[in-house]
Write a structure and sequence with these properties.
The protein has 120 residues and is α+β, with helices and mostly antiparallel strands. The protein contains four helices and six strands, in the order βββααβββαα. It has a three-stranded antiparallel beta sheet with strand order 1-2-3. It has a three-stranded antiparallel beta sheet with strand order 4-5-6. It is globular.
Length: 120
């Protein structure tokens, strides 16, 4: 499944993606950052994920196409090592509610309090 449209809204820090099947997702940049597919975030195997904290105000500086199958999202916290395949972006959109709640629960379990994102 390939995207037909990708729009970055830097002021509101969301990435809008529409796919060939007309699925449309509006994904917060913070969500994309904390679920980066990079080894730095995901680890090198199950159970090695690294909880990302303090990413409420992160933004995307640029989106780099990688062939016809992915994009590299370059975040303003200098993280740019994750390749977001079309399949992974679709999965992130389709599972947003559950993944976001899981992230919030893991923050709380780790003793971290998520601060409200800055408003523009």
């Amino acid at each position: 499944m390939k995207p037909t449209d990708i729009k970055l809204h830097q002021r509101s820090r969301v990435l809008e993606i529409t796919f060939e099947d007309e699925s449309h997702f509006t994904l917060p940049v913070e969500y994309l950052r904390v679920y980066s597919p990079s080894a730095e975030v995901q680890g090198h195997g199950p159970g090695q994920e690294v909880l990302q904290i303090g990413k409420e105000d992160v933004n995307i500086e640029r989106i780099e196409p990688i062939g016809h199958y992915a994009v590299r999202l370059a975040f303003d916290d200098n993280h740019d090592s994750g390749l977001y395949s079309w399949e992974y972006l679709y999965e992130l959109g389709a599972t947003y509610d559950d993944r976001w709640q899981d992230y919030l629960a893991r923050l709380e379990a780790g003793g971290h309090k998520r601060k409200p994102a800055a408003e523009f």
